[in-house]
């Protein structure tokens, strides 16, 4: 008996529910058609970006372990964005907090730079081949213009008013020249430490969500000025640095309008020239889950509408319309460190199936709008030393991967040439953006040709409501094949495959797993390939059949096709 048959039996005995067949024992019939001879454009690997509020976790035990997994997704081409890389403190992390203490003043008011902690963070990325999507922020205590009496560090924790995080770190610099010099010195140091060619690959941006008053306590003009000085400092140290921003929340409203006008036609505060160098543009897009009739209902429509709003802003300025775009945070909701009933989807297959369905739609939306989409940052890492499966938005818990991380492993198996594909049960993009997935489930697909010539077919079975439902019985028709496929391999993430959360619940939800239990959880988190039978048809055609549970995601790899 395989480990997953054992786990499935244990789950049933433990009373753990997961999507089931319809009452009459049947499943939903779905037809998928792939034309392997017809390319419909590129599928850029935009999924390879991750991030977190707490930068110091990257140097800790479970953080280092997770970085190994992220770096392996696409060797040498993964990026990580983190807040608090310039925040003052001793490097001890907590919720929505981290620090590096890179900048202090001596008694004469002269800058003192200490790169020790921040180097350790970036070294942790680079050890796994990961590149920084480098956020220049937040404000060092010695440079903060916060009024007297405002504490520098916040004491936020889950359950506390989110607005209370806006303490002294969130204020403009009291000396813009020193702020610009800090950006210069940091960039120069990075070039010396990591090499010019490496640092040229990084993304440099200033701050986070400056259109929200709990991240930015200055005016929009204060931000444009701070941005100008930082970018000027970076470019003075490395004229070829890739710079951009402003990583606003949502589409950014009038704040984004002002920023785009400033960087194209405004007078640069630091240089006196017209405009500010801008190599890429960035904004954030989030969904909005809720509780409906006692269960979680996801908000994929809100997420996609936010992405489209950001694309619209970028496209509104002809001089910027062709620039690369990064969705600097793209998630089902807005606070990774906030557990709660509406966020109960995070541990299991609701999160993994949402990720597949939402990324597929963002890819489709970007292609439709002709946006040069370079990256989609999943603001999901790990929370060191927290209870098992505590309900934070993360990729792993106590060093054990969650199902959602396996979806990124499936993405990594996709090629970058997209092929024509249809599914009889895939809900049109416009309908998902308007209404979400509230009626029949979305059983969708996308197909690619990999660099080594294989076909990779991704399928997902998604619904906004976190409820059980019938499986999908999927018939895949392959046309336009170069030759008869010799092998079909399926990788699955669903309630009974690559799902450590289900295995943990079947164990009785231990908060102190012993060595054997830990090993079993690690084993349960892993995907295992299955071979699927292929029915060869007339020349250039073949078919195969597979079953996909609700909240399931699968990838079919076909060799010799």
UniProtKB/TrEMBL annotation:
The Glycosyl hydrolases family 39 N-terminal catalytic domain, residue ranges: 31-531
Keywords, alphabetical: Glycosidase, Hydrolase, Signal
Domain of life of the source: Bacteria
Nucleotide-binding listed as a keyword: no
Keyword Hydrolase tagged: yes
GO molecular function, one term: hydrolase activity, hydrolyzing O-glycosyl compounds
Residues annotated as signal peptide: 1-22
Pfam families in the cross-refs: Glyco_hydro_39
Residues annotated as catalytic: 209 (proton donor)
One GO term (biological process): carbohydrate metabolic process
Family: Belongs to the glycosyl hydrolase 39 family.
Protein name (Swiss-Prot/TrEMBL): Beta-xylosidase
Organism: Sphingomonas panacis
